[in-house]
């Protein structure tokens, strides 16, 4: 069984904001300050050399990932092309890989030929939201077609990334299964800044149950990530089970804007927050409890399971730690269904490896807590 995994802590991520421009205007987009602005390739090279030296001198990191970010990064394909070929010439001594996420609408035949030739140096992920109707709903345009066969051919291991909007939530299961029927992997996340309600949570639960049943019936399908997360649920406060920092923002990751200024991640750049509200990397103590722990959530049984993003927290609520409480019933719906799925799946396995057993035990423990909660009536923070 392929369970959800934690990324390597030995990899340093250098994110380059190669452009503030995008050719689409997705309904859930949080980049509210787009403009036709681009990073200079020589500046990008300077940053990469500096980051590579940092990794080389570090006891914490062994390798470097260079992420090309926008806007839509392929609005600045000439920079991407030159940087990858420059790196392939051996200009840095640490192991490296390049990565980008794209809406895939700008991939010409010429670009796809180049990507095939450099697939061992460059991994491309695609943002794709389900059926053609779901794509159209979220993208706000019919000009959203992408060559799924190309991604299946070149990066079959790389999941498509689906954003679940309020409008596409009722067809979530259909969208996920449609992608998987095309022999592609998919992972999904709820849109941020959305007024999620208890009614939405009940729909989410229904859609997740459809997927749960589909995966239990057909074990050849790879369950998508919302059902394979480790269900760590606790019914009592504990200093050992407090809210955690979910990502490498400001520590394992550094983001450089088009002018070379450094930020903790792309969420704190002018593209997302505007020039006057952008938050430089050195303005935050990224590992402090004040930056990660919301007092409202400290006794909630889902405090560790519940995902949180300091960037979205800061953008929408003005504080790195303050979570969106409208998410609470959605997270409860996900925890309950993931717990049920994992218990049922593992109960039917003929042979368990160590990780299967670990996930199964956690899911059984979680069930003892979650069975006391009801999505429609329980109020957050969820306590027993």
How does this model look, in words?
With 384 residues, the protein is an alpha/beta fold. It is 35% helix and 11% strand. It has twelve helices and eight strands. It has helices spanning 41-57, 77-88, 109-117, 132-139, 148-154, 172-181, 198-217, 270-273, 289-292, 310-317, 328-347, 354-370, and strands at 11-17, 63-69, 96-102, 122-126, 160-164, 186-190, 253-256, 262-263. The strands form two sheets. Strands 4-3-2-1-7-8 form a six-stranded mixed beta sheet, with helices on one face. Strand 7 and strand 8 form a beta hairpin. The longest helix has 20 residues, at 198-217. The protein is globular and about 60 Å long. The mean pLDDT is 92.
Please summarize what this structure is.
The chain is α/β, with parallel strands linked by helices and 384 residues long. The protein contains 12 helices and 8 strands. The chain has a 6-stranded mixed β-sheet with strand order 4-3-2-1-7-8, with helices on one face. Strands 5-6 form a two-stranded parallel ribbon.
Largest sheet: 6 strands, mixed
Number of helices: 12
Got a strand count? 8
Please mark out the parts with pLDDT under 50 across 5 or more consecutive residues, or reply none.
Answer: none
Choose one word for the global shape.
globular
Could you tell me the mean pLDDT?
Answer: 92
What is the topology, as strand order, of the major beta sheet? Answer: 4-3-2-1-7-8
Distance between the ends: 31 Å
Classify the secondary structure makeup into a structural class: alpha/beta
Radius of gyration: 21 Å
Strand content: 5-15%
Strand/helix succession: EHEHEHEHHEHEHEEHHHHH
Helix content: 25-40%
